[in-house]
Amino acid sequence: MTVEDLHALQTSGRPFVLLDVRESSELTMAALPGAVHIPMRSVPARIGELDPGAEIAVMCHHGGRSEQVAHFLHARGFSNVHNVEGGIDAYALRVDPKVRRY
After folding, report:
1. Model-wide pTM > 0.85
2. What is the largest CA-CA distance in the chain?
3. Which of 1, 26, 67, 68 would bridge 83 by S-S if both were Cys, CB 3.0 to 4.6 A apart?
4. CA distance 59 to 20
5. What is the DSSP letter of 50?
6. What is the pLDDT of residues 30-78, one digit of tens each?
């Protein structure tokens, strides 16, 4: 999903989970409100915190880690998972310039 798709989802009122898989130190630099934070390396141990039936948009800094997590979740039965292409950096560039780039 593009960052524009994510923004449309955020403003649609449809329920979804924005899963931020960046490290805690990255959240201090830039974060989106309402995101669930589970660092990539913690996802396997914390997978029970996620609903396999929910729509989930996975985000990281540039899209690489989130793509891996999206594939991981999909392989474990999560049917409605999207990778946010370009991550929070693309979101800051193309959707909300108030989000800090790092």
Report:
1. yes
2. 36
3. 67
4. 5
5. S
6. 999 999 999 999 999 999 999 999 999 999 999 999 999 999 999 999 9
